[in-house]
Amino acid sequence: MSQQLIEYYKSIEESSLKMLNAAKSEDWAQVVRYEGVCAVLIEQLRAQGRSETLLPEQKREKTLIMQRILFNDAQIRYLAEPWLEQMDDQSAGAPQFLH
Fold it and tell me: Of 13, 15, 23, 99, which has fewest CB within 10 angstroms of its CB?
C-alpha cells in the first residue's frame, strides 16, 4: 500500500505543475483552484501516511518529487509577487472595518 503514498506525492507534483503553468499564463483563478486541489491531496496524504510507511527506494523517489514541488512553488511565488503587490495596492485604498 505504500505505493499509494507515492501516488499522492505524484498527484501533488502534477497539481503544482498546473499551478505553475497557470501562473505563467497569469491565470490567477486557476492558480487558486489548483492550490485548493493540492491542499486536499496533502490532507489525504497526511491521513494515509499515519498508517503507512515508505520503503527506502520510495523515500528516495519522494525526495526527488518534493524537490520538484519546491522548485515549482518557488517559481509560482516569483511569478505571483507582482500580482500580490497589486492586490495589496488595491486593498490599501479600500475602507477598513473594525469588528
Answer: 99
